[in-house]
Structures are given as structure tokens and as C-alpha cells.
Amino acid sequence: MAGKNTCFGLTMALFVVSVWLALASAKSYQKFLREHVDYPVTQVPDIQHYCSLMMKRRNMAKPNYCKHLNTFLHVDTPEIQAVCGQAGEPTTGDLRESQASFPMTVCHLQKGSWAPDCQYQGTQGIERVVIACEEGFPVHLETELPDY
Fold first, then answer.
1. CA atoms within 13 Å, Cβ hemisphere of 19
2. Alpha helix (H) ranges present in the chain?
3. CATH code for the domain of 79
4. How many domains is the chain partitioned into structurally?
5. CA dihedral (70, 106, 142, 40) positive or negative
6. Shortest CA distance to 63 belongs to which of 21, 115, 14?
7. How distant is the alpha carbon of residue 51 from its chain centre?
8. Could you give the dihedral angle defined by the CA atoms of residues 34, 35, 39 and 44, in that order, rounded to the nearest 10 degrees?
9. How many whole angstroms separate alpha carbon 86 and alpha carbon 17?
10. Residue 46 region, left (φ>0) first, then alpha (ψ -120 to 50), else beta?
11. Residue in 36, 49, 68, 74 annotated catalytic
12. Bridge partners (DSSP) listed for residue 102
């Protein structure tokens, strides 16, 4: 009888851990989408307005904090998610390098800009990316790789 209870307890513990990991991955994936995906591209008069607007809208420019650097990818979510599978090459750990280049805007906090008035300078480009994946979903944008 004790063997059945131990086996049941172990099975339940593994189930709880797997559900917790799935929920954590889903939360990380949603954060990745909020911070790094803008498709179709939000229309603004110029790129400087774009970065300041998006950083505030996506909750990375707050009354008491300005995130220093952020990249927005302007491609449909399934194309980014595909990097975690066939459209990406494994690098180290959970990182994968995209085979395709993606249109993007990189937003840098302007020198001398402080919260609550976070002002950003943006640059646009088309580059490959390195992302971290969990359970087949992107959860962290590691870096951009220029095409040569």
C-alpha cells in the first residue's frame, strides 16, 4: 500500500511541476510578445515618436524607470515562433539563431533622458535574431545579427 501512495505522490508532484513550468513558459511568451512584437507596425509620424510611444505603450517606459534598450520585430508571430523549430539553428543552451532576417526597430534611450520623461532614439533594419525558446515558444530576444 505504501508503494502505491509513494508512486501516486511522485506522479502528482511531477504533474504539478509540469503545469507550473507550462504556466511560467506561457507567461514568459506573453511578455516576449508584449516587449518585442509589433505587427503590423504601429503607424506614427517618424521613428523617434515610434520608439517613445511604443516603449510607454508596452510598459517599458514608466514613471520611475526607463528601459535602456529594446527591439521590436515587425513580423507575424508564427514566423518568430518558427525560429524555435525548423526556421532556427541551435546555438548554445536554449538559444536559436533565425535563418531569416526580420524587419525591426531598435529603440535606445536618449542620453540625458530620465523617467518619467523617457525619450528614445530609434533605428530600423532587417537582421537575423538570436532568441531563447522554452517549450517551442520564444521567451527572450538575446541579440540581433547584422547581415553581411
1. 6
2. 2-36, 47-57, 77-81
3. 3.10.130.10
4. 1
5. positive
6. 115
7. 16
8. 110
9. 28
10. beta
11. 36
12. 127
pTM reported for the whole predicted model: 0.82
Closest alpha carbon to 47 in 114, 101, 148, 38:
38
pLDDT in tens, 99-141: 999 999 999 999 999 999 999 999 999 999 999 999 999 999 9
Q: Using DSSP, state whether 35 is helix, strand or coil.
A: helix
DSSP-assigned letter for residue 71:
E
> Which domain covers residue 123, as residue numbers?
2-145
Using only the alpha carbons of the chain, give its radius of gyration.
19
Is position 74 annotated as part of the catalytic site? Answer: no
68 catalytically annotated: no
pLDDT(148) > 90: no
**Cα–Cα dist 34/30, whole Å:** 6
